[in-house]
Write a structure and sequence with these properties.
47% strand, alpha+beta, 3-stranded mixed sheet, Phage tail proteins - horseshoe like beta roll fold, 4 domains, 13-stranded mixed sheet, 25 strands, Phage tail protein beta-alpha-beta fold, 356 residues
Length: 356
């Protein structure tokens, strides 16, 4: 597990590998890097390289012959021996800045690109959400690791959606997140996704941090309704503070502050039509938790480690009693350039604030 000590040696420059083999030329010629990870899956990378040098006794473009950088080639970024990105090249861009040498920009995505580029209309019958997710993983040659629960659907329709969009929709409905680990499609509930704990403190590995507790989008309850076809009866469920209480770690929730200071604020889920009591409860609680978790949102810059990734928890210290404590990392940008070097920009969130 990563720790908060300052004794570890941090690489000043990430390593670039092609099809699993470290490439010294690309590593030394790296001008800029941005690796983006979110809770929605499909991690992407943009890497900028110098593209002018000596080759075969003459000075010319280094990479336009596509022998090194080419579409579909495996593209990895490593920090020491740890991979922080593993994908395939999907775009190549030439850049010709005024007063500077030519550059080449490479864009890559992980294997969830296959799901993004496959659009279908079809129906799944007598399945759970997990069943449908496993079938889609198998369709793309991925190993499914699906850790979600939910009611069975008589009919589950995928209507002119990509496989990735459909899986994301079903994951949101059961409070789950999607990501790829090697060739394994991982889908797990938010509370079951555990990528470790990292200690971060101002003046240590945490270079910069800003954080806001905002009641504007909070709700005291979420109401969902539907229709039970077999019973010919209306369905209704109200999700409230208890749905997120287990995640507070002793903090005061935005929901309780909103109720005390401004009164009741209700959100009605109107665009979904669940067909069972378990489904209507899952949808109401999923939306309520998503809203409640964004009460406190932080953005920071830290020293890059492979452990600082989406799904990990960070224990932020030295930022005062209101905002000290554990956060869930929901977005990560690993960045590199010639001015600021290697660093990680991240977004984190939690449903509560330190008590007065």
């Amino acid at each position: 597990m990563p720790d908060g000590s300052n004794n570890a040696i941090i690489a000043a420059r990430p390593t670039v590998a092609m099809d699993g083999q470290d490439n010294v030329g690309l590593t030394s010629g790296l001008l800029g890097l941005d690796i983006v990870e979110t809770v929605n899956g499909l991690y992407r990378c943009e890497a900028l390289f110098g593209n002018w040098g000596s080759s075969s006794g003459s000075t010319n473009f280094e990479y336009f012959d596509r022998r090194v950088l080419d579409f579909g080639k495996g593209f990895q970024i490593k920090l020491g021996s740890d991979k922080i990105f593993d994908g395939r090249i999907s775009a190549i861009e030439g850049r010709f800045p005024e007063g500077g040498p030519p550059q080449i920009d490479v864009l890559a995505e992980d294997k969830l690109q296959d799901l993004r580029m496959t659009r279908r209309t079809r129906c799944f019958t007598d399945v759970t959400d997990a069943d449908a997710m496993r079938q889609i993983a198998n369709d793309h040659g991925l190993t499914p690791d699906v850790n979600v629960s939910g009611s069975s659907h008589r009919v589950l329709a995928q209507v002119n959606q990509s496989d990735l969009a459909f899986i994301r929709d079903r994951a949101r409905a059961v409070d789950a997140e999607v990501w790829l680990q090697g060739s394994t499609l991982k889908i797990a509930r938010h509370t079951n996704r555990d990528a470790g704990l990292i200690e971060l403190a101002m003046g240590g590995k945490l270079r910069e941090f800003s954080v806001s507790a905002d009641l504007a989008c909070q709700r005291t309850k979420v109401v969902a309704g539907g229709w039970d076809v077999s019973a010919k009866a209306a369905l209704s469920y109200e999700a409230a503070d208890s749905a997120v209480s287990a995640e507070l770690n002793g903090d005061e929730s935005g929901v309780s502050i909103l109720a005390a200071k401004f009164g009741a604020r209700t959100e009605v889920l109107a665009h979904a039509v669940p067909h069972s009591s378990s489904e209507v409860q899952a949808q109401a609680e999923s939306l309520f938790r998503a809203i409640a978790r964004r009460f406190v949102v932080g953005r920071g810059i830290a020293e890059t480690t492979s452990g600082l990734q989406v799904g990990c928890r960070i224990n932020v210290q030295s930022v005062g009693p209101l905002f000290n404590g554990k956060y869930y990392v929901s977005e990560v940008h690993h960045r590199f350039d010639g001015k600021k070097g290697l660093r990680t920009e991240f977004r984190c969130e939690r449903p509560g604030i330190g008590r007065a």
